[in-house]
Amino acid sequence: MTTRTIAVVSAGLSDPSSTRLLADRLAAATVEALRARGEDATVEVVELRGHARDLADNLTSGFANEPLQAAIDTVVGADGLIAVTPVFSASYSGLFKTFFDVLDKESLTGKPVLLGATAGTPRHSLVVEHAMRPLLAYLRAVVAPTGVFAATEDWAGGGVDRSLAGRIDRAAGELAGLVTGRPAATRPADPFADPTTSFEELLKGR
Amino acid sequence: MQFGIFTVGDVTPDPTTGRAPTEAERVKSLITIALKAEEVGLDVFAQGQHHNPPFVVSSPTTTLGYIAAKTEKLVLSTSTTLITTTDPVKIAEDFATLQHVADGRVDLMMGRGNTGPVYPWFGKDIRDGIPLAVENYQLLRRLWREDVVNWEGQFRTPLQGFTSTPRPLDGVPPFVWHGSIRSPQIAEQAAYYGDGFFHNHIFWPPEHTERMVEFYRRRFEHYGHGSADQAIVGLGGQVFMRKNSQDAVREFRPYFDHAPVYGGGPSLEEFTSQTPLTVGSPEQVIERTLGFRDYVGDYQRQLFLIDHAGLPLKTVLEQLDILGEEVVPVLRREFAALKPAHVPDAPTHASLVAAAGGGHASTVHAADDVTGRTVETVARA
After folding, report:
1. Which of A151, B151, B153, B320 is deepest in the core (most CB within 10 A)?
2. B194 lies within 8 A of chain A by CB
3. Quick one: pLDDT band at residue A83, thresholds 50, 70, 90?
4. Chain A interface test: which of B134, B159, B213, B220 (most A C-beta within 10 Å)
5. Separation between Cα atoms, residue B374 and residue B361, nearest integer Å
6. What CA–CA distance (Å, rounded) separates B261 from A173?
7. A118: three-class secondary structure by DSSP
8. CA torsion, points B112, B118, B120, B125, in degrees to nearest 10?
9. Residue A119 forms beta bridges with which residues?
10. Which ipTM did the prediction report?
């Protein structure tokens, strides 16, 4: 049985946060969906709150410190990514965006990604489509067609309502399909490998 | 091994007084610092090149020429010479002239410059940084090595029958280092020519330096210039010292907190643990610096940044005293004891002349339009 790694990036700030709650539901459903396809999966969660200062430091210093680099390596090296943010001022939170700002812009190319967002009101429901999806499109990730948005009322009444559960399962199935359709994750090209273009080639005509 | 200092020539207000030196004071302070470097027994003074405020180092050979006249032994270098936006013809002329003025005590470090707005001021585009560095440096080499150059490239007006004057001292061009923080292409360029590679080794974790130097060494060997451990490596480093390390930390903290490149991010403590920045006692600086060898191997040149972020001249001169009296003599002894015999020293004008089989008069005379003799025939005669 192939074992896949699914990285989860959650930008929730409280503990427990509804963002993390949604992230966990998406992760569990994805593991289920992969099992149904005959593949095992391990889940590695990156809580961005714990890297809030690391990320701010990265903005000014230009490099990731060790804990942040470990989180980046987890995400970049995973077979699939689940990214969930709370909605702040009609978009993803600054913390969420900062994590994607400090990634090498090539590092998520072709990565299967499932998007989720949470908010206090359903009127933010298009944030997944209008804010998150363009960000991941810029990074050339392969984003599952279904994004999952959950407002306060989706969690109300002591349980998840049927439509949220249905959206989670559909989205997880899509992510599992994207992951199993691909070879296991490969590391980005090593910039310090011997060059493929000779220096004489670069000098040609100069 | 060579020890020295490098400066970026910034005019930064002293955060403890709010006062910035005038440009006149800063230009003069660079000279004072360089003369002090020689006085305390350092080997190298390297000066940056910038064309925008808050810097005063747009014309490096003017300052270096004056320092040359006032010193006896100091090697004058750059940190860096902008190979992207400076006309290679001007670099060839300026530094060959400086060689004559300084009796050969000259080398250069090439850098691309990472300030985007500067490029268009010189008709260039930062996105062409690497191709500019490749083309311009290849032309610079030819201008120093060939008496008459016919050349055409992508970025500069073609040259027909051009002779860069004066010719290099003794017919031997200055040694060149290539500086880059994270572009393997530049390490490759240094390796291709068998030139030196310098990593500025400040602001970033040492793993970046380690990977770049390892790559340069491997490629230096690939191109047949010697074994990997014979490649010519230089490192930067930033230090601030007082007898007691707590005093050093207390005195340096406001400069760190307000430095444009440091402030607002990781704390001084985080920066000193994550990067080679060392703020403490001379003993701590010695120990840290000796540790650089653990990840880059035996290397040839260590330059320290000491006049940055608004530190007053008086403080900088005190730092030079500590470097010269307490730090560098120990480092010199310790590094020399560790270095195997087959690892070379950094090339100097004397060693390059010897390697060339002696100097030769290199003057090129003008073409004579009466007899029809050309520069080529005169050079051959």
Report:
1. B320
2. no
3. very high
4. B134
5. 18
6. 47
7. strand
8. 30
9. A151
10. 0.81
Report the alpha-carbon angle B5-B8-B12, nearest 5: 115
Gap between the Cα atoms of B375 and B366, Å rounded: 6
Return the SS3 of A206: coil
- The CATH superfamily holding the domain B2-380 is Luciferase-like domain (3.20.20.30)
Q: Does residue A125 carry a pLDDT above 70?
A: yes
Contact B177, B234 (CB under 8 A): yes
Residues of chain A contacting B192 with CB distance shorter than 8 Å: 199
What was the pLDDT predicted at B162?
97
Q: Which residues does chain A have within 8 Å of residue B274's beta carbon, measured at their own beta carbons?
A: 63, 65-66
Torsion angle in degrees (nearest 10) through CA of B109, B114, B117, B119: 40
Query: Cβ of A39: how many Cβ atoms within 10 Å?
Result: 17
Interatomic CA distance for residues A171 and A146, integer angstroms: 5
* φ, ψ (nearest 5 deg) of residue B178: -120, 125
Side chain identity, residue A148: V
The pLDDT score that the predictor gives to residue B371 is 60
Domains of chain A: 3-203 (3.40.50.360)
Rounded CA gap, A9 and A23, in Å?
A: 8
Alpha helix positions (H), B102-181: 118-121, 129-145
Q: B139 in contact with A at a CB cutoff of 8 Å? A: yes
CB atoms within 10 A of CB A67: 12
Closest CA to A99 of A84, A79, A119, A114: A84
Show me where the domains of chain B are located. 2-380
pLDDT, tens digit (0-9, with 9 covering 90-100), for A132-143: 999 999 999 999
Question: Which of B130, B44, B45, B48 is CA-nearest to residue B82?
Answer: B48
pLDDT tens for each residue of A9-38? 999 999 889 999 999 999 999 999 999 999
How many CB atoms within 10 Å of residue A2?
A: 14
Q: Which residues of A touch B137 (CB under 8 A)?
A: none
Contact A124, A149 (CB under 8 A): yes
Model pTM score: 0.90
